[in-house]
Design goal:
The structure is a single chain. With about 280 residues, the chain is α/β, with parallel strands linked by helices. It has nine helices and eleven strands. It has helices at about 15-20, 30-35, 40-45, 100-110, 125-135, 160-175, 205-215, 225-235, 240-250; strands at about 5-10, 50-55, 70-75, 80, 95, 115-120, 120-125, 145-150, 180-190, 255-265, 270-280. The longest helix is centred in the middle third of the chain and has 17 residues, at about 160-175. The radius of gyration is 17 Å and the shape is globular. The mean pLDDT is about 90. One of its GO terms (molecular function) is dioxygenase activity. Keywords: Dioxygenase, Oxidoreductase. It comes from Alteraurantiacibacter palmitatis. InterPro entries: Xdiol_dOase_suB.
């Protein structure tokens, strides 16, 4: 039976990818953020997960404003990273887990969600940057990928509650999967930031720390704000916290925080990394 060993929650700012490409990990501007991945690397080396289920948002690579699904799940045998305009392109391919993807899709539909199913799919910096952070180097990624895209771009957006329930449905699907894989859950994006308009550069440290404080022990605290509240609090792109909320919903066991890092700013964004451990015991 498959096992969810934990969750990794991190920012996916394209500037991080450029810093990786330019080997700026020890630059004073970037070092506080990259140092937050030391415990993540240690944990991954110890746990050695075989599949990564990644909740993220597509930035116009697969879907644009004229066709924006609320939820989309990849079921491809392989994914590739394509540069959507930021000047970064990582060459390592991502091996898919189509059998597990189809199982998740079937179970999520049975839970009355209606995701778009993608048998061919590219991934952008929202997947590529976290993978490069977690598994630096040139070797093939040691995990297979199941990508789950959430609309955080085109209103109306899904509610935080809906995203949390989606994550729970994915968690139940993984629990019912008969394979032997050890699985890590990713939630990527944010934290607070806004890239355009009169509030460009907006960062809300208080809201970010509220999310970080409650993510492990009380994720339902993050559901008290609707999507428009979050846009007001965290900025129009800060609503990417929906990806974190969905990923937290998939961690259905007894969850505890192993590491947390918060650094402001990176490219006008509040950047954070959180590592959560998910025990085998499922709470009622």
């Amino acid at each position: 039976m498959s096992q969810i060993c934990g969750g990794i929650f991190t920012s996916h700012v394209p500037g991080i990818g450029k810093a990786i490409a330019q080997n700026l990990q020890d630059d004073p501007y970037w070092k506080p953020f990259f140092d937050g991945f030391k415990p993540v690397h240690q944990w991954l080396a110890a746990e050695q997960p075989e599949v990564a289920v990644v909740f993220y948002n597509d930035h116009g690579l697969n879907f644009f404003l004229d066709k924006m699904p609320t939820f989309a799940i990849g079921a491809a045998p392989q994914y590739r990273h394509e540069d959507e305009g930021w000047g970064i392109a990582f060459g390592r391919p991502y091996e898919g887990a189509p059998d597990l993807s189809w199982h998740i899709i079937e179970q999520v539909v049975a839970s009355e969600f209606d995701p778009v199913t993608c048998q061919s799919m590219a991934v952008d910096h929202a997947v590529a940057v976290p993978f490069e952070l977690c598994w630096p180097g040139d070797d093939a990624f040691p995990v297979k990928l199941v990508p789950i895209a959430i609309n955080t771009v085109q209103h109306p957006l899904p509610s935080p509650r809906r995203c949390y329930e989606l994550g729970k449905a994915v968690g139940r699907a993984i629990e019912s999967w008969g394979g032997p894989e050890k699985i890590v859950i990713f939630g990527t994006g944010g934290l607070s930031h806004q890239l355009e308009g009169e509030r460009a550069g907006h960062i809300n440290v208080d809201y970010d720390k509220f999310c970080l404080r409650n993510l492990a022990p009380d994720p339902e605290a993050l559901l008290q704000h609707d999507t428009l509240d979050i846009v007001e609090l965290a900025g129009s792109q800060g609503v990417e916290i929906l990806n974190w909320i969905a990923a937290r919903g998939a961690l259905r066991g007894s969850v505890r925080e192993l590491a947390s890092n918060y650094h402001v700013p990176i490219s006008n964004t509040a950047a954070a990394t959180v590592l959560l451990e998910n025990s085998d015991k499922v709470l009622a």
